[in-house]
Amino acid sequence: MRRLSLVAALAVAIATLSGGASFAAEPRAIPPDMIGMILTPTGFDGKIYESGQIDIGNVGWFADWGNKLVLLQRGGFAIKEQFIQNDPNNDKDREDHRCIVGPKREPMSLDVRLLFAMPDHTKPAGREAILRMGVLGKPVTAKSEQYGGNRVLVLNAGSVYFQQVQQQVRGKIRDICLSYESVDAVFDAIAKNGTPEGFTDKMKKMVGTILAENNSPLFLVTAIASNVKPDPSVISAIASGQAADKLTDAMQKIDTFIKADPTGQRAYIYKLMMMQAMTAKVGEKGGNNTFFMTDVGVPNGIPIPTR
């Protein structure tokens, strides 16, 4: 009997040292704006825990093994993808990250804001998505004083995006920009936002396709393109082109007006006005011009303009 009691006591001692959750309480807090998952030494236990307190069990005697609480936000999150000349958060960045538009390769700055919603963990598909986020994300160690002790990790849902699909999304955004004929065509597409041809609508469809192809647990709400700004050289080229078009249109109207007069009076007056303007321009610079005028070929009754 004494030997049996010693064996029983030894078994209890070994079980206690092994760190079973039933022998010691290790409570940790799950804030109201978060949900929790238990990461065991062999993986997640497959459950989603609501806000409150949870016992994660004590640490085993072998290699300090033990469960960890992984916290994840309840609310949605936003990602901003920037395509600018220099990274404002990196003083050493000298690369040009702007999008390239069309065959003329016009540089264009651009922000694309992506809004994501968290899966509904109360439904089977949402629970599976949350658990996949725990596998795909990159949790960081939390401060022990915030959640009642150590062995707590916080998973930023945005890290799933960065780890899984960011590079593909940025590459496809560049492809969309390159598909337009020019920056002008991009602005025309922005004016059509809210339709399948809209610039923002193409962005949203593209991101949704990438998430689906990668079986991502992220739920896209919308994508918004903003701060679209072409390079100053592109703006100057557009302005010069518009000015040249207006000048050509004005010259055609003047030519049509002059040719409509069979007497030649309009042509003669136009020549005199042009010489008057040339003389005034030279006078502004301190020079002088002398024009020799004759009445050869001048129709009768044409008044000579005077300064």
List keywords for this structure.
4-stranded antiparallel beta sheet; 307 residues; 11 strands; Tetrahydropterin Synthase, Chain A; alpha+beta; 5-stranded mixed beta sheet; 3 domains; 9 helices
Order of strands in the sheet with most strands: 3-2-5-10-9
Care to count the β-strands? 11
Number of helices: 9
Outline the biggest β-sheet.
5 strands, mixed
**Helix-residue proportion:** 40-55%
Signal peptide: 1-24
Protein name: Band 7 domain-containing protein
Keywords: Signal
Note down, in words, how this protein is organized.
- Keywords: Signal.
- This is Band 7 domain-containing protein.
- The chain has 307 residues and is an alpha+beta fold.
- It folds into 3 domains: 107 residues, no CATH class; 119 residues, Tetrahydropterin Synthase, Chain A; 47 residues, no CATH class.
- About 3% of the residues have low confidence.
What is the topological layout?
Blueprint: H1 2-17, E1 27-30, E2 34-40, E3 43-44, E4 52-55, E5 68-73, E6 77-83, E7 99-101, E8 106-117, H2 124-136, E9 140-141, H3 144-147, E10 152-155, H4 158-164, H5 166-179, H6 183-190, H7 199-213, E11 219-230, H8 232-259, H9 265-284
Parallel strand pairs: 5-10
Antiparallel strand pairs: 1-4, 2-3, 2-5, 6-8, 7-8, 8-11, 9-10
Helix pairs in contact: 5-7
Signal peptide: 1-24
Organism: Candidatus Kaiserbacteria bacterium RIFCSPLOWO2_01_FULL_54_24
Protein name: Band 7 domain-containing protein
